[in-house]
Amino acid sequence: MSNPAGMPVLEPAEGAKDQHMVINMGPQHPATHGVLRLVVEIDGEIVVRVYPEIGYLHTGIEKTCEAKFYHQVVPLTDRINYLDPLANNLCYALAVEKLLTLEIPPKAQWMRVLLAELSRLNSHLIWLGTHAMDIGALTVFLYTFREREDILRLFEAVAGQRMMTSYIRIGGLAMEPPLDFLDRVQGFVRTLPEKIDEYSNLLTGNPIFHNRLKGVGHLSAADAIALGVTGPPLRASGVDFDLRRDMPYSSYEKFQFKVPVSNDADCWARYEVRLIEMRESVKIIQQALDGMPEGAVKADAPKIVLPDREKMKTQMEALIHHFKIVTEGFEVPAGEVFQGIECGHGQMGYYIVSDGTAKPYRVHMRYPSFPILQALETMCKGRMLADVVAVIGSIDIVLGEIDR
Amino acid sequence: MGEQKTFIKTLIGKDAVLEGLPDHPAVKAILGWNPSALADAKFDLGELTLTIVPEHIATAAAAMQAAGYNFFEDLTAVDWFPSSPRFQLSYHLVSHAFKERIRLRVLLLAEDPAVESITSVWAGSDYYEREVFDLFGIRFEGHPNLRRIMLPEDWQGHPLRKDYPVEGYR
User: Fold this and answer.
1) Nearest to A337 among B47, B73, B154 (CB)
2) In the prediction, which pLDDT does B140 show?
3) Would you call A44 helix, strand, or coil by DSSP?
4) How many CB pairs under 8 A join A and B?
5) Which of A211, A224, A318, B83 is the least crowded, having the fewest Cβ atoms under 10 Å away?
6) b/e code A350-379 from CB counts within 10 Å (16+ = b)
7) Does the pLDDT value for residue A2 go beyond 70?
8) A214 pLDDT more than 80
């Protein structure tokens, strides 16, 4: 089934060659949210088969990780899902810390929760803006990117980088957040619920948006589980499972929040679930701000965690540790771990195999957008071609994490 | 937190796990189904790993699914070149009911590594098996569409193998 250039071509089904047409969508189509190529077989306007072609962004990050020290992998991780950068950092750091059995101070854990939720909001805001834009409601995009800009400014304040933060490190955080950081976050979350009402006003009552999403892209709970679907699409199919609540990490068990579930299993349900999730994220951030513990943001492990700049310049011991970590890394006990977290798109997981040296023997990333592409055909089959765009928007994919 | 307290216990070896965790649903399931399919086991860092004899992986997956590990989360491989057996497949399964994750492990020899596909148990393993096929060159018997997924069709070699240089062949 492959042509000389190595590009597989989907042939129409046997016996339907006269009626069916095969069309190509992407990889440069704006509604595919990156470089996703879909080969779609249609009968008139009705979708018969959808065949996703991926790999256009494959850079072999997993192979690159094997050639780096453990701490050098951190900046690679937030380039995978660049819309939810801190969740990547968090998942990797948690996995390595599990191998090292490292205790993380409470303040670092709470800061991580706060930042992971800000990151989730960032991811959901981009999803909402682009999803609405695909459907034709261009205005919402401008609104959500206004708030996203506020989040990026917060990331810049705390990490010095807007998108590729690398702020969550093995053993804690890169450095103390700036003094006014928590006040700025407070200012942001105070206004956000009104902003979410604003999006909801623009979309929930909008008959075009409603008609384009309601009843479109049905995915039953059984199909969702069989196809490896996680996160908001899984919960919109009626499966009540969220790693933050059910297998908590980084002290999420100390926070109170609801996990929205819907039984409608269509694009509209996914829209509603994510909108409620944004409101719950605001509540989690508020709890993190109210109860932020005092203390250090780095674990007391001088051979693993880089010392503060100040100490490095004044203390011989700290300088030696700094030099050792940067030039030869640190050894991690042999073993294998899988650490899962709930990121904006669903269940993320890092599988790390250590052979006892300073470089990971194998790093594998499980990202939620990869398996969900398999469910695309189930959701689009028998529907109009235009619904494919609505479905792609509703499953919220990032091609960086699919191709890695 | 569940994970914190389980850190204390480390069980290495089949007998130690069968003795130390007799009430674990996955251990019970494997004993009730076919104890001879279990080659090895360990419980380390709060994670249970069951090593399955390669011929039995598809039926073991079905037995785990029946025992409550209803969600297939991840599949990947590790290349232990030059030691033997060379390849390790790691399947990660999650139970929505027990709120727990287990790992099934299969060890394969270097020559013509192949194992039965579990797409009949979880259709969602399709892409993962294609990815392992693409990057490690391990075949999955009975897979509906075993083609390269990340790399072009005419690519030579399997990049995640340890004898494949990081910079690629020049």
Assistant:
1) B47
2) 92
3) coil
4) 110
5) B83
6) bbbbbbeebbbbbbbbbbbbbbbbbbbbbb
7) no
8) yes
- Best B150, B151, B166, B167 member to test A by mutation, with max A CBs in 10 Å, is B150
Would the pLDDT of A188 be above 70?
A: yes
Distance to chain A for B36, nearest Cα, Å: 24
Residue B124: inside a domain, yes or no? no
Domain-located, residue B81: yes
The rounded distance, in Å, linking the Cα atoms of A115 and A92 is: 15
What is the number of structural domains in chain B?
1
Return the domain boundaries, chain A.
61-403
**pTM of the full structure:** 0.90
For residue A182, what are the CA distances in angstroms to A239, A283, A287, A289? 35, 15, 12, 7
Residue to test with chain A: of B5, B11, B50, B76, most A Cβ within 10 A: B76
**Per-residue confidence (pLDDT) for residue A283, from 0 to 100:** 93
Q: What is the CATH number of the domain that holds B50?
A: 3.30.460.80
- Topology given in CATH for the domain delimited by A61-403: Cytochrome-c3 Hydrogenase; chain B (1.10.645)
Could you tell me the residue range of the domain that residue B25 belongs to? 2-115
Contact A351/B125, CB-based, under 8 Å?
no
To the nearest whole Å, the CA of A254 is away from the closest chain B CA by: 10
A370: chain B residues, CB-CB within 8 Å: 127
Q: Identify which of A58, A98, A370 has the shortest CB distance to residue B127.
A: A370
Tell me what pLDDT residue A10 has: 65
Of B44, B73, B96, the CB nearest to A239: B96
pLDDT tens digits along A95-136: 999 999 888 999 999 999 999 999 999 999 999 999 998 888
Asked, for residue B144, whether it belongs to a domain, the answer is no
pLDDT digit string, tens, across residues A12-40: 766 667 788 888 887 777 666 778 888 88
A112: left (phi over 0), alpha (psi -120 to 50) or beta: alpha
Residue B152 in any domain: the answer is no
Given A6, A58, A253, which is nearest B1 (Cβ)?
Answer: A253
> To 10 degrees, what angle do helices A138-159 and A106-135 make?
160
How far, in whole angstroms, is CA A204 from its chain's centroid?
A: 25
Interface test with A, best of B127, B133, B158 (most A CBs within 10 A): B127
Q: Under 8 Å CB-to-CB from A271, ≥6 apart: which residues?
A: A131, A203, A213, A394
Are the beta carbons of A370 and B124 separated by less than 8 Å? Answer: no
Give B103's contacts in chain A (Cβ within 8 Å).
336, 338
Strands A335-342 and B139-141: unpaired
Q: Which of A63, A99, A366 sits opposite B159 (nearest CB)?
A: A63
pLDDT digits (tens, 9 = 90+) for A126-160: 999 999 988 888 889 899 999 999 999 999 999 88
**Shortest alpha-carbon distance between residue B66 and chain A (Å):** 13
| Phi, then psi, of A336 in degrees rounded to 5 | -135, 140
The type of residue at B29 is A
What average pLDDT does chain B have? 85
Closest listed residue to residue B155, CA positions, set B140, B123, B122, B133: B133
Residue-level pLDDT at B170: 62
